Amino acid sequence: MKKCVIIGVGGRHKLFRDALVEKYSTRYQLVALCDSNIGRLRFAEESIKKSNVSVRLYLEKDFPKLLRTEEPEVVIVTSPDYTHHKYIIAAAQHGCEIISEKPITNNLINLKNIVGVLEKTDSKATITHNYRYSPHRSQVKQLLMDSAIGHIKAVTFDWHLDRIHGADYFRRWHRYKKNSGGLAVHKATHHFDLINWWLSDVPVSAYATGSNHYYNPANAKRLKIDNQGQRCTTCSSKNCTFRLDLSSIENLKMLYSENEEYDGYYRDQCVFDESIGIEDMIRAEVRYSRGAVLNYGLVAFSPWEGYEISFIGTEGILSQKYLERSVINGDESSLREGSNVETTLLVPGKATEKIKNPHSAGGHGGADPLMLDHIFADDGTQDPLHRKSNHFSASWSAITGFAINRSMEKGEVVLIKDLIQDLTVPNELRLN
Fold it and tell me: Which of 15, 48, 169, 277 has its CA 20 to 30 A from that of 401?
């Protein structure tokens, strides 16, 4: 049985925590939790006790002590993006296996430090790019591997975040680019990882434009939202449709509003605050080493949630439209109607084929349970779809976001080789 610890007990850690103390408890033992907020730690501890499991609690500053005392074999990192590098590096130096939430990190300097230490220590790191595991996305991978449309020449990919989910990135720590890398890194790393994985390729250049069109003070005035405060809790505006009442949502209340006294973190900051420094709309052109061109768009204030993608190949077109559920992170009560998927195959000389989509229950379109099984119940069987993401494949998705950020900043095409000239990438592409 492997001893595990979790660093970071915000909304996302619950997925791994519950899996360890329930389904995989015969193979893994959760021995400790670590966070910067003692209140959140106590809340997580009480939740674990319901499964008759006891854990020890450590504050973030005591993470080195945790490693020495607990001697964990596995460290699970579910802390904010800008802290990932600290825990991944420390865990690697201690000889631990690492499982980390995406993105692997928030900027290029941290990435180079991570890759350097992981290679030096020969450490195993899994970055949880769970979107790969959604059955309908795995189906796309299989069709492309089977050359259903020949050689891919172009991809159009538009991702829509609605005003429930999209706004949530502008009220939390993500709103500052130094923390999250902006949506080009924090959110779009999902999307770029999918493209890299679907194409079995890596980017060579990126050109992008982006701006904050919606979540800004000028738009608040246009919407006739006035007298807004720093956060929803203290806001006197009467007609803001973006108000988030943390006290009305049990999980968010217990994770955040009940524990503000310990770290001063406000989970419900105003989405129209002038200090917001990330883009809410991005357009990009990304070129890949084998000749494909990606035209990518992200909008964070759409009337719907989901994506549309088309692969244009030498022998046809494969398209998929996905209507996704919308949720405020940490709150399952705001889920909308069930998701639906449409996948279409167009091949010259044949009738349009509406492909029946596989389905699986669970979060992220059925991805989360499959990913957890792949990580924690791995029996050594080879996965022909290569869905497990290591630190190299995770690095490539983050690098795409870094290149897009630099392009938006400089207003020019960014060559990936210039970004990673001192980053070691052995054994060809290392995508799988």
Answer: 15
Question: 114 phi and psi, to 5 degrees?
Answer: -60, -50
209 and 227 in a single domain? The answer is no
- Segments forming the whole domain that contains residue 135: 131-214+276-419
Q: What CATH number does the domain containing 101 carry? A: 3.40.50.720
- Cα–Cα distance for residue pair 336/334, rounded to 1 Å: 6
* For range 237-258, the mean pLDDT: 92
* Sheet-wide strand order for 74-77: 56-59, 28-35, 2-7, 74-77, 97-101, 125-128
Residue 166: what residue type?
G
Q: Cα separation of 51 and 33, whole Å?
A: 15
pLDDT tier, 333 (very low <50, low <70, confident <90, very high otherwise): very low
DSSP state of 65: H
* Per-residue model confidence (pLDDT) at position 325: 73
Answer for the pair 181, 83: CB distance below 8 angstroms, yes or no.
no
The count of structural domains within the chain is 3
CB 241 within 8 A of CB 219: no
**411 assigned to some structural domain:** yes
Instruction: Tell me if 235 sits within 8 A of 228, measured CB to CB.
Output: yes
Q: At what angle do helices 13-21 and 38-49 cross, to 10 degrees?
A: 30
Same domain for 43 and 167, yes or no, is: no
Give the span between the Cα atoms of 187 and 182, in whole angstroms: 8
Structure tokens at 312: 């244009």
What residues contact 323, with CB distance under 8 A and at least 6 apart?
Answer: 304, 305, 306, 339, 340, 341
Residues 41 and 127: their CA atoms lie apart, in Å, by: 23
pLDDT digits (tens, 9 = 90+) for 265-313: 999 999 999 999 999 999 999 999 999 999 999 999 999 999 999 999 9
**Assessment of whether the complete model's pTM goes beyond 0.90:** yes
- Helix (H, G, I), strand (E, B), or coil: what is residue 322? strand
User: Would you state the structure tokens that stand for residue 415, as one six-digit string?
Assistant: 């060559």
Separation between Cα atoms, residue 175 and residue 380, nearest integer Å = 40
Tell me the two tokens of residue 156.
Answer: 């159009």
pLDDT of residue 335: 45
Whole-angstrom Cα distance, residue 16 to residue 10?
Answer: 11
Report percent pLDDT > 70 for the chain: 94
Torsions phi, psi of 333, nearest 5?
A: -75, -15
| 146 and 85 within one domain | no
Residue with tokens 């497990």: 388
Tokens matching residue 91: 């865990």
Side-chain-side CA neighbours of 165 within 13 Å: the count stands at: 21
Q: What is the DSSP letter of 257?
A: G
